[in-house]
Each structure stands twice: as structure tokens, then as C-alpha cells.
Design brief:
16 helices, mainly alpha, 78% helix
């Protein structure tokens, strides 16, 4: 019954999104507007609050560096296998092997099975993905598009990103100990009420939009299955690396669950948007379809975790 209580609401919201798309109860424009509000406004508030109020686990910097190195290696392997996957997708394939969707998927799912004090784990893992998606990719896109990089303009875009700002200010205020000051002040209750009001709708809306955007086409099925196999193998190796490099952390159940769930999530949802200026329409469709289908892998893993480990 506990597993059903956890899984049914998740599948209900995703199913509601899928049906809303098929029946056009909600238009694509309306869905994009809602998703934009969550992604650019409400979700950064959630990330800021988690980083501001939660103590980061010991050895966090080494975890982030390990993941960043792993993502870069996956990118290199992606460049090598692109001819085998499909030469139609020269930009999509390498980047689809990097990053995981932590904020919009791993974190909401993890929040349904873990106590609030552990919700920092997916956010910690997502820091390396943030560097790739919001720092490295803009530089590469600028270079491909214009042949050179305007460092000043690119840096301004990066620093204006709400997600980046949430991470920077959340970490700075945490390190400065301002969360301890807040805990002792009379403003704590007001702060918590504001955060609750802003963040409660996030999980439901994200699950709804995930269901809405699921899309499978026959044309891209074979190359997607090839890419599936490579990505799953690579990320299983990354998980093994966690057991070898951070065995003391993997003994903690919540941390282990976060690792298993996070690395079986699809590529960052922001990837198609970030690569948009240099990708063809076929590549955009390929990326969206890959991410949508990989959702089934994520939900299978999530279901197994709920049934057998939670």
C-alpha cells in the first residue's frame, strides 16, 4: 500500500499530462508557459532554499568533480559513436550522453520517497550538469554559430540564468551561515510559509509536463535504441564508480537511492533549448524523442526502488 501511495500520484499526473496533449485540453503554448514559470522562477526558488538551508554532505566537491569528469568522458565517447548512431545528429548524440535531469525529474521523484533533509543529494549531483548545460554548452554554441566566442556576452548570459543565480546565492548564504541566523530569528516561520507557497505546485506541474511531452516516432527508434544501450552502460559504470570512490557515502540508504535514481534519468530537459541555435529540426525532434522514451527507463527504476528498497 505504501508503494501504491507513492507511485499512483506520480503516474496519475503524468497520465493526465499525456491525455491532455492527446485531447488538446491544454494547448502546447499553455503548457510551455506553465513549464517556463516553473523552470525559470519557481524551481530556482526551490534550489536556492535547499542549498541555503541544508548542510551539504562531506566530500561534496569531490563528488561534483567526479561527475563533471564522467560527463566529459561520456561526451568524448559520444563523439566517437556518432557515425554508428546516425550522422544526421552530429550535435545531439554527444550531448545526449551527458548530464541527467535532476531538477525537473530526479528531485521531484526523490522527494516522494526521501525525507526533506536528504533532498540536497539530487541537487548536489546536478551541480556538474549545471556546469555542462549552462556554462560549457553556451560557449560551444557561440563558437559553432559565430566561429568565435564573445566571452563577455556569453558570461553575461550565464550569470543571468535564474538556475545559476539560485545555486550561487544559495551556496554563498549557506557558507556564510545565514541559515543559522534565520533559524534563530522570528522571521523563520514567514520564510518557510513563503517557500512552501512557491514550491508546493512544482512537483505536480513538472510531472504533468513530462507526461504531456512524451512522444515516440518510428523513424528515430533504431538510433535511439542504440544510444539507449550506450548511455545505460556508461551510467551503470558511473554508479559503480560511486561504490568504489565513495563507499562510505553509498552505505547511507538515502544517498544510494539518490545515486541509483539520478543516473537512470534522461538527459537534461534544458539541452534541446540550449542546443537550439545550432541544431536542425531533425536533431531537435531526435533529442525530444530520446528524452521522452528514456522516461520509461526512469519510471521502471523508480518503481523498483519504491517496491524493493524504500
Amino acid at each position: 500500500m505504501n508503494a501504491l501511495n507513492t507511485l499512483l500520484p506520480v503516474f496519475f499526473m503524468m497520465g493526465l499530462g499525456l491525455i491532455s496533449n492527446q485531447k488538446q485540453w491544454i494547448t502546447s503554448q499553455a503548457k510551455d508557459a506553465i513549464k517556463g514559470m516553473v523552470f525559470h522562477l519557481l524551481f530556482p526558488i526551490l534550489i536556492f532554499n535547499i542549498l541555503f538551508t541544508t548542510s551539504l554532505p562531506s566530500g561534496s566537491i569531490w563528488i561534483v568533480l567526479y561527475m563533471l569528469l564522467a560527463f566529459l568522458i561520456c561526451f568524448g565517447i559520444g563523439k566517437l559513436v556518432t557515425p554508428w548512431i546516425g550522422s544526421k545528429y552530429p550535435y545531439a548524440v554527444p550531448f545526449l550522453l551527458t548530464t541527467c535531469e535532476g531538477g525537473n525529474l530526479a528531485l521531484p521523484l526523490f522527494m516522494t520517497i526521501a525525507a526533506p533533509q536528504y533532498q540536497t543529494y539530487p541537487v548536489l549531483f546536478d551541480m556538474a550538469g549545471t556546469v555542462v548545460v549552462f556554462m560549457i554548452i553556451p560557449v560551444l554554441v557561440e563558437k559553432v554559430k559565430h566561429g568565435q566566442v564573445s566571452w563577455k556576452e556569453t558570461l553575461c548570459k550565464i550569470l543571468k540564468n535564474p538556475f545559476i543565480l539560485a545555486v550561487i546565492f544559495g551556496l554563498l548564504m549557506n557558507v556564510c551561515g545565514l541559515h543559522l541566523v534565520l533559524e534563530k530569528s522570528s522571521w523563520l516561520s514567514l520564510y518557510n510559509n513563503l517557500i512552501d507557497m512557491a514550491t508546493k505546485p512544482i512537483v505536480s506541474i513538472i510531472l504533468f509536463t513530462i507526461g504531456y511531452e512524451m512522444n515516440i516516432t518510428k523513424e528515430t527508434l533504431v538510433p535511439i535504441l542504440k544510444l539507449f544501450s550506450i548511455r545505460i552502460i556508461l551510467y551503470l559504470l558511473i554508479i559503480v564508480g560511486f561504490f568504489l570512490l565513495f563507499p562510505y557515502r553509498m552505505k547511507e540508504k538515502a544517498f544510494c537511492l539518490a545515486v541509483l535514481l539520478y543516473f537512470m534519468c534522461p538527459t537534461s530537459f534544458a539541452l534541446p533549448m540550449q542546443l537550439g541555435p545550432i541544431c536542425t529540426k531533425k536533431e531537435q525532434e531526435f533529442m525530444s524523442t530520446f528524452i521522452s522514451i528514456f522516461m520509461f527507463i526512469t519510471m521502471i527504476v523508480y518503481t523498483c526502488l519504491v517496491l524493493f528498497l524504500v
